[in-house]
Amino acid sequence: MRRASQEQQTFTVNSSSSTNMFLDTEDAEIIAEASRLLLQRDSNDADALYYQGFASLVLGEYSAALEPLNQALTIRPDFSQAYITRAIVYFNQGLGELAIGDFDLAIASYTRAIEQKPSDGSLYIARGGAYTFQGRYEEAIADFTQAIAINPQDAFAYGTRGDAHSAQGSYEAAIADYNQAITIDPQHPFAYSSRANAHSAQGNYEAAIADYDQAITIAPQDPFAYYNRGLVYRGLERYSDALSDLDRAIEFGLPEVQPERDQVEEIIRRGGATR
Prior knowledge:
single chain; about 280 residues; mainly alpha; Serine Threonine Protein Phosphatase 5, Tetratricopeptide repeat; globular
């Protein structure tokens, strides 16, 4: 399954705001323009520099993202979220070692923040997200569990813990967390998508399709939901449905799945099932 992880979707910048990594191009362009205007007034505005780099990341302009993120970190060396975002840029550029270094710096920064604000659940979620990116799932689960202890109604904390369980192959535990996230927030599209991925991994394809359907109803431009539902359809030999979903995934931001889409089209051309 290909997906936008919970950590990519949202990372907490501080206790009162969050950054949505799952934006469309228009939103990113608005953020970029707002940042540009703020930087005209103050070229050392670390927040504006961060958002300029963040917008470039969303737009896929990785080289352009690095300069403002580097500047933001020079101005504010403890800017945890900037380390996270720069790490994601590095990963997208194939610079894994640099990315891991930034995640380490982010974790250290979040740890210092937690020492100062031990009752701020958002800090545990953010550090847990960094642990998840590094594959340190037990530490991530511990942080998400602490966030839930602080705020038992935090749907996002349940979703991120579910992702860590899922990454370990603990699908029943993951589904239980996604169920709780959906109970708290029935309009949480990524919880449906994540639960669908877990169902699919278990071979429960009809349940997976139902959850992808719901995720798409809530977030109709989520390319990952279309892509993953398309994979399920392909596995069920519903090639026409698979082709339609892969087309939508490409339309909404996953051009790299074009070869898979073309493979499905070739199966149909050769007389494969088209239902």
